[in-house]
Amino acid sequence: MTRFFGAFFTILGTFIILFACVAFLNDGKPTLGWKITQWESVVPFLVGTVFLITGVNMMRN
After folding, report:
1. For residues 58 and 42, what is the distance between their CA atoms, to the nearest angstrom?
2. Residues 7-35: what's their mean pLDDT?
3. Counting CB atoms within 10 angstroms of each CB, which of 26, 34, 36, 44 has the fewest?
4. Domain ranges of the chain
């Protein structure tokens, strides 16, 4: 069960980080219906990083 959640968090973190990168590069234009500035894209990047690290640690143990 822990490996399932680890894989889920890893995949979710990867998608959130990719979304943050695309939002950062769009320079204020809507991304998936949300208008996110370059500085606001830092928040999903940090959340995605936390999910990614948590998922990898859960799968490793």
Report:
1. 24
2. 92
3. 34
4. 2-60
